[in-house]
């Protein structure tokens, strides 16, 4: 495990992965995500939205990630929207303005309570 890193991709397969999984049913609060990049919520946007299905895998640390480091943000994944129990963090493509997404309080949830 010391030689591996956890990566996520909305582009499909992760070529460096020997084994990958498709994850569905993750909720997002604080912004919107279309599978390509984050965007601001609008006045009529839902408070919580489902994230499109994505591929996740452990790959060697020296392998290239699906996205450049400067185009992703690591968002926390909580068990519920109460944000009491953090499970992990995953990377989402966000464009260039990382600080903006931190300020929105964007977070992911396994269960919408």
TrEMBL record:
Residues 1-110 form the Dynein heavy chain C-terminal domain. One of its GO terms (molecular function) is dynein intermediate chain binding. One of its GO terms (biological process) is microtubule-based movement. GO terms for cellular component: axonemal dynein complex. It comes from the Eukaryota. This is Cytoplasmic dynein 2 heavy chain 1. It comes from Araneus ventricosus. The gene is DYH1B_2.
């Amino acid at each position: 495990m010391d030689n591996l890193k956890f990566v996520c991709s909305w582009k499909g397969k992760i070529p460096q992965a020997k084994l990958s999984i498709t994850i569905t049913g993750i909720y997002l609060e604080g912004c919107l995500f279309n599978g390509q990049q984050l965007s601001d919520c609008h006045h009529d946007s839902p408070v919580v939205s489902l994230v499109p299905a994505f591929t996740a895998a452990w790959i060697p640390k020296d392998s290239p990630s699906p996205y450049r480091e400067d185009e992703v943000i690591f968002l926390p994944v909580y068990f519920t929207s109460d944000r009491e129990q953090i499970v992990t963090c995953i990377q989402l493509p966000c464009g260039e303005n990382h600080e903006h997404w931190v300020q929105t309080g964007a977070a992911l949830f396994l269960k919408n309570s």
